[in-house]
Amino acid sequence: MRQDTNTERAVLGAMIVDGEARLLGLEALTVDDFIGKHRDVFEQLAAAERAGIPAGPSAFADFACRGLPNADLVRTFLRTAEFANEACSLATMRENMKLLRAASTARLAGRLTMEVQQKIETGQGGPELVDGLAEQIRALSTLDDEVVPLSPDLTPRTGLVGTGIYAIDSLLGGGIAGGEVMVIGARTSVGKSALALQAALAAMEVGTVVYWSMEMSREALGRRALSQMADVNSQTLQRGDYDLEEKIRIDAAWDKLRSGRLQYFWRGDLGGLRRAVLYRKPALVVVDYIQLIEAPPNRRNENRATEVGSVMRAMVAMAKQRSVPFIVVAQLNRANEIGNRMPRLSDLRESGDIEQDADAVLLLHREVSADTPEERAKTVAILAKNREGSTGTVRLHFREHVTKFVGMSGATPPEGWQ
Question: What is the pTM assigned to this prediction?
Fold first, then answer.
């Protein structure tokens, strides 16, 4: 199969212009999928990604020009601009990458066939040689099979990450598995971020957690995490007037946080989130909250429902590709504030794709304007969608001074659960 250099340029152009396209290309392609000088451009893009260079023609050209003599600077800038002008869209990039892989597979098959023929002619051939050829071609034959045989997986769900609240995790069948996405939805100030953080702190026992937030600063999130873990009022932490017993709990919690397993992330674009998932290999990703994430460049300036839908689909794809569980916080619209009614799936703001693509949806309801602290603490958690099990309702108690939920249902949790 003859290589189409225009397709190469379209893919490389997209990887130069768009950070998400760059990560997609680096995950799926290798330098052997390109020919000639395009191999150098791909290697420069890989180096730019490792160095943390942001996407964009100017940033890439500046990076590519480092160390070059003056005579080559103009040529490099012009070549980068040409690639950028020929960039394909994200929508067509996957098909273009399949064409590149098919061409590189054909080239490899040709080379290996010649090698086998030469060895057979010289008496060096044999079944092992042919088997090795077939295996190498099969390994490169597809990018992502779109049609595969149905193969039911009857093994138990393992590697589950829970919320830290026994009653909720029981409804979830033990927690969230790799590749699954759970949405936590609620109105402002009900406690959706607090519950997401509880889940993140519980997941630290399993591995690294990537916590994306544009709601809270790194310092504020750290203070809330310390308050939850040490069971010390956050205002007491700020004032520093804790007693000896609280100091012991704070020191123990601080030691756990210093392990670095809770990774704070604040960039507002999907490319940055994809990079964090790719390189951190987390046990859990928490996104707080979805409506604040910028849509991919090719989806911006569309209506907000379409933009949020594209963000949700991208996160579902990330979860499945990397087999990482996601907890996605979402803001509910104000319809359920009328009469203080219980929330439902349709209350998810820009809800169409969020509701449809999530594996589980947990909705929180709390009367934040009730007259007494006891009434304000009463919380209902509604598991309104659950692909892996039944739905249901759990009653929780919100401990406002440490922004933490505890279960109130009848089941007795094992040691270490709330």
Answer: 0.66
